[in-house]
Amino acid sequence: MNRAALTEFAGRFGESRIGVASLAVTLTFLICALLAPLISPTDPYDLSRLQLIDALKPMGSHQVVPGEEFRASFAVEDGVAVAQGDAHGLAAQSCGDACLEVRLDAETPLASLQVRTLPAGASVEGASKHPVQNWWTVNTPAGNSVRIVSDAPLPETFNFSVIARSDDQPTDLVFHLGTDGFGRDMLSAILYGIRISVFVGVVAAGSAMVIGTGLGLFAAWRGGATDALIMRAVDFMLSFPAILVGLAILAVLGSGVGKVILAVVLVQWCYYARTSRSLALSELNKEYVEAARGLRLPAWRIMARHVLPNCMPQIIVLFTLNIAAAISLESSLSFLGVGLPLTQPSLGMLIANGYEYIFSQKYWISFGPGIVLLVMIVAMNLLGDRLRDVTNPRFER
Amino acid sequence: MAETLFEARDLSRIFEPARGALQQLSDRITGKQPAVVRAVDKVTLSVVEGETLGIVGESGCGKSTLARMITGILPVSGGERRYRGEDYVSFLARKRDALKVQMVFQDPMSSLNPRLKVGEIIGEAAALHRVVPRARVRDHVVEMLERVGLPADTITRYPHQFSGGQRQRIGIARALAVKPELLVCDEAVAALDVSVQAQIINLLMDIRQDSGLSMIFISHDLGLIRHLCDRVAVMYLGRVVELARTEELFANPVHPYTQMLLAGMPRISVERRAFMPIVGEIPSPLHPPSGCHFHPRCSSASGHCSRIRPELSEWTPGHMQACINAG
Q: Which residues are in the ABC transporter domain (chain B) (predicted)?
């Protein structure tokens, strides 16, 4: 297409606000898909970074660094406490008769400090005792220290152990769209999900376009038995619902990106074959094809250079619509659990994951991917419709 | 005597209607012959070097089908074609030699690929078949454009940017670019305005004069045929009914159909003249009349005409005709 025709095409396309809006939305999603590794806050595929403490958090909550635990055991001899092994910054010293202070020298405030196995008669100031065990726990000890006191003087020799827990620390990272059951940031998961879905959609629809258009042109050129064979195969494929074909193929082959693409290609090639055959048949009747034959051009050249470019506008429209169809088919298959692997969630799988929690008011897990999928497919369909209107020769303004 | 360039003998083209397998079977059992269209029915004609042969007839008489068989675009159902005495089977197999027969099409809108630039349209075959060296293709295209009276910058433009007459010039340049010896013009000016028609006709005559090109000029316009052609073949429903030198045909038409065609031709010299319209419509080629195809519309038809298929025979030297009642 030359520049003047392109300008005119763009002008006609721009007449519809819905068309421009759908193009903008589609491009936004494409950019999201391309730049997902750069713009997403976390890498949802890095399983080692996931922590269960972040799981199922609502929208807007912060990521948390879980509190640390310090353990040390002490032996008291002649009133002097000596740490056995590594003390992890814990220290115990005498604070008078029948008094022993245990402290942690650290900036971070402790969530709790527990002292275990004290001798009979001894207790910990302000502590609650375990109902059965000889465990004394002080929540948020002031100054990170507790005192072991006793009515009678403490024995000369005894052992005890200390477990200090520091507080959970919120980080600057905010989960704007909440987290799922694995503690994955939903925003990142959605961005990567768009990437996977768009990749599968474009590659599958593109492969189907190449294969289907090739077969359609071949059928139109050869005619006769070849034509009948290919077109009956098309009729055969079209008589099955897409989701059924996809399920059958994935049930046999197992899940995976490549297999989902294969399933979509097998479903979609026949649309292109049928369309390109009928377009090519009408083009083959035109005089410029006869002129090309008169100029003794080889058959493949006539098809590739003369017939195909004249069929392309309608095929590109079909391609746009079929990307949306491919994405929705892939999402449906993933939702049903036969599509992509759990470690590379597409939008459909994210929705399926969230579906388990939707009745426990954890709505955000399904809603985000669901709305994104809805908007993306609607935008692509509107874009395809608009392209079809503009390329239609009987375009009415 | 100039060499015979192209020769067709008993050339036929039959179009069969598409039949399902069941229909074919039942036809075979009942012995029914399927209704076929004999678009071209045993046509014999020849073109000598440097000559222009006119083919004239009403629409639907098989002129365009004949043109496509002559250029090798359509296969034949029967008969043989020869180029300089060589059969078309081997002639068409040698792609570069097969370029010697080229065609100019009727509709300048659909005969140019809208997706290719004019330079590609004209130069593609010349480059592919090495008619000129690769490096010279562009110069060659410019040369062809000049020859048909178009500026050199036409090369980078697209067909839709041109008028009908200019497009037809591009179509002629495309045919000339592969250096043909025989140019088949199928109603090449029928789709153009009269003023533009004259320009294209003059262009064709100039080209013929410059390069000694042989031409087959197909038209329904008797005036054009008379102006352009050395010999004329008159076709009716797939058959040639009369074939003679132009002056001879226009002066002494023998076949009743030719006579009626000529009588219907508008002339300036005659002031008051009763037109003698040909009675009735051209019959459907699916169910042509028996015997002589023209007999239902012929004023001088006799009883034999509906039974005997008339053959083209010599009337006077060089003048062939196919009416059994002639003379």
A: 23-262
The answer to whether domain B4-15+36-254 has CATH 3.10.50.40 is no
Beta carbons within 8 Å of B113's beta carbon, 6+ residues apart = A288, A292, A306, A309, A310, B121, B159
Query: pLDDT of B51-105, one tens digit each?
Result: 999 999 888 888 999 999 999 999 999 899 999 999 999 999 988 889 999 999 9
Which H helix or E strand runs over A394?
none
Q: Say if residues A160 and A71 touch (Cβ distance below 8 Å).
A: no
Identify the CATH number of the domain in which residue A144 sits. 2.60.40
Count CB-CB contacts under 10 A for residue A69. 12
The model carries a pTM of: 0.82
Closest among A389, A286, A235, A266 to A329, alpha carbons compared = A266
Q: Are A76 and A154 in contact (CB under 8 A)?
A: yes
A223 touching B (Cβ < 8 Å): no
From chain A, the residues in CB contact with B111 under 8 A are 286-288, 290-291
Q: Is A219 in the same domain as A362? A: yes
Domain residue spans in chain B? 4-15+36-254
Domain that holds residue A121: 67-167
Chain B residues close to A290, C-beta within 8 Å: 68, 73, 103, 105, 111
The last residue of a domain, from among A104, A133, A167: A167
Residue A2: band (very low, low, confident or very high) from pLDDT cuts 50, 70, 90: low
- Are B174 and A291 inside 8 Å of each other by CB? yes
Give the pLDDT score at B304: 85
Q: Which of A81-85, B30-34, B75-79 has the lowest mean pLDDT?
A: B30-34
Burial B28-47 (b: 16+ CB within 10 A, else e): eeeeeeeeebbbbbbbbbeb
Contacts 24+ apart (CB under 8 A), B144-151: B144/B173, B144/B174, B144/B176, B144/B177, B145/B118, B145/B173, B147/B173, B147/B176, B147/B207, B148/B172, B148/B173, B148/B176, B148/B203, B149/B203
Q: Is there a contact between A185 and A175 (Cβ–Cβ < 8 Å)?
A: yes
B125 touches chain A (CB under 8 A): yes
Place of tokens 């592969």: B178
Q: Any residues with CB less than 8 A from the CB of B265 and at least 6 apart, and which?
A: B222, B223
Same-domain check for residues A255 and A351: yes
Most B-contacting residue of A287, A289, A310, A316 (CB-CB within 10 A), to test interface = A287
Q: In A95-241, which ranges are E strands?
A: 99-104, 110-116, 122-124, 128-129, 135-139, 145-150, 157-166, 169-175
Following DSSP, what letter does each residue of B69-89 receive, concatenated?
HHTTSS--SEEEEEETTEEHH
Q: Which residue, among A214, A216, A196, has the nearest Cα to A204 in the 3D structure?
A: A196
Query: Do residues A80 and A54 share a domain?
Result: no
Count of structural domains, chain A: 2
